Amino acid sequence: MPLEPTGELALSFAEPAGVWEEALPLGNGRLGAMVHGTHPVERIGLNEDTFWSGPGDTAVPEIPDGLLERVRRSVAEGRHVEAGRELRVTQGADAEAYQPIGELELTHLDTGRALMEYRRTLNLRDGVALVERAGDGHTYRQEVFASVEHQVIAVRLETDSPEGLQVGLRLTTPQARARLQPGPFDGSLELLLAAPRHVVPWPRTDGVVLDDDDQNSIRAAALLLVQAEGPEAHVAPDPGGASLTVRNASAATLYIAIRTGFRAWNEAPTLTEQECSAAAAGDVHAATTAGWPKLRATHVTAHRELMDRVTLRLDDVDRAPDLPTDVRLVRRAAGQADEHLCVLAFNLGRYLLAASSRPGTQAANLQGIWNDRVSPPWNSQYTVNINVEMNYWPAESAGLPECHAPLLRLIADLADAGRPAARGIYGARGWTCHHNTDLWRIAVPVGLGHGNPMWAQWPLGGAWLCSHLAEHWRFGRDTRFLADTAFPICLDAARFVLDLLVETPDGKLVTSPSTSPENDFVTPHGNASVDAGSAMDLTLARELFEFVLEAADALEPADRDSLRDAETEQALEEIRGALTRLAPLRIGSRGQILEWSAEREEADPHHRHVSHLVGIFPGHSAVREPHLREAARRSLEERGDEGTGWSIAWKIGLWARLGEGAAAHRLLGHYLRPLIPTDSVGGGFTGGVYRSMLCAHPPFQIDGNFGVTAAVAELLLQSHETLDGAPVLDLLPALPPRWPSGRVTGLRAPGAVTLRELTWSAGAMRSAIVEARADTTVNVRYRDTSGQRHTHRLALQAGEHVEFDGLQHR
């Protein structure tokens, strides 16, 4: 069974998954599955995006009078360690943990048959995982996908063996409170579960709290229905009802539905397990009514509609070898050219976003929607100081704007949940959140007084999240979204930042207290992290203020009349005044951007976070300034190429924004390394990818997969600049020299435009088609074969397109 050519749109393996991280991920935004492809016992992991511990404690701690003033005074007087110690009283409960449902376990009873050939494939374009085995002249085939329309995980088993399928089936779970019983249909099993009430954050694994009042913990029901085909096929339950056995079947279809008792982030999960069971039964009934052929065809059509929006092809490079993906990774790490792995990584990120984030679902968390542990790494929560933002960096540019919707809804929830934290901790208007949140929208600093301030005490999470509202507006130009969501939420986030600002002796404004996420500096009294006016804070404040003013001017006349009342106008005037007084980013003695308010000795000069460079990428305010571009380049050089998987992905994007295609390509090579042991970074490992190409922090974090997709898009199209008030579409701004010729379609840019097609050869643009989705004005910039730069200003109506051919456009 030779491997079929898979190129850039499939993962392919000649062996089963050795560990969970090597399984094949499937999802419909709400339901997740991990296909291992093992034999004789196959395991398919199951997840549902609202199955979390909790409800969590989101209360704001009682804050001593005058705390903020004392902290600001400590910072101003250089007592940074003391400032951090004082702030610990603001820490509330820890965020809760995303939970696994369990596994579908398939035990093949014909274990005596020799297995001579094996293939395991994930087709990214179709969203289907395939496992094929062959031996003794017969074949076995297993297909799995997650249906959006019918909300089930569907599994198809087929064989041409005369003995037929002989398979035992059961549902297993790591949850302590679970009950397995016969389901409501013939040939069905049902797993009823209750999530823990609380999980102490990883790496501790001793903090799972099970006790509750039988009402508050989230309940769930997982229902498995089996339909067997063949003249002698039958499905029989075991005497205890804990498993099923398929006998003598030429084929069998398995339908798995999961429903939980979660209602809303601010409501108790009141649905009982019986109600969850009834909802899951409804899903299974609808799916079986449709049947396997229709179910599969509908799924593939819908999934391809998303995946086909953007294509990337590299020419004049060696074709992708017909080898397993993991073998290709090892060969590339050893120096064998395989540029198509870069394209595969780009497509994998798009696939994972479509699989883990759809309208109406929860936002993709630290592991997307895939998790097998009750105490997962970092509770598999939402880490707001980089990771959840990176999850959505490619949503707009890579043609998946509807997949952005769950994060935008999370931000709207936090705008409500974060008001008590802003008022109770800082005495501030508006809303805030800190470095962690979860299903219950916790917004306070976490740690219960024991959290390190370098990660707990970061109140600019709301400001950074607002950049996603800004990007969704800029790329789509949806005036209703601007008026109803983006403008009011961002204005309230800006009010909070205004109240966090203090005046420096030279009349500038800086945030205080301020940290640079998860990094610290050396002081005579020990390492400290609390300062005033970190580079990241100042950048996020500037970009938030700029967007609020932009949005206010862009409102439709009717919305302007209703939204810009006297209170709003006063806030806008405050923002205009503060914007002119924000302290600038500072340059250090080595030409680097300073991370804190002064040049301080870094505790870790090669720290994984590059927060002080956020204005280069994914932001835009610093990249506009030549002196800051040069300082950012110096900062990147000092940080070095190594890091965790997501850190490397961020650095690829930074080098792309700086126009350094060769450097970005070098970092792509670092990212695509198969995971190897080392003693230097990330808990004993250096970042890279697992055999499955899932990002390794390590352990698994999905953010790097999304970050690489966004970074590759930046190599081909950038649109962070404006010229005379209109976006600039910069074509091939950082093309790697190793990609001399190619074609990309479907990338999106601000101004509601799509790059329908862009082709290049010998490193220069050959043709391009720019299409408007709304009435818009944009500038198109490119270099010709001689290196000369050209800029064309286009005024387009919705649906209109312009073609570029060489130096002409028509």
Characterize the structure shown.
This protein has 810 residues and is α+β, with helices and mostly antiparallel strands. Among the domains are: 12-51 and 100-307, Beta-galactosidase, Chain A, domain 5 (Distorted Sandwich), CATH 2.70.98; 384-583, Glycosyltransferase (Alpha/alpha barrel); 722-809, Immunoglobulin-like (Sandwich). Helices cover 30% and strands 25% of the residues. It contains 20 helices and 38 strands. Helix 12 packs antiparallel against helix 13 and helix 13 (479-500) runs antiparallel to helix 14. The longest helix is centred in the middle third of the chain and has 22 residues, at 479-500.
Short summary:
The chain has 20 helices and 38 strands. The protein is an alpha+beta fold. The strands form nine sheets. The protein has a nine-stranded antiparallel β-sheet, with helices on both faces. Strands 2-3-4-5-10-17-16 form a seven-stranded antiparallel β-sheet.
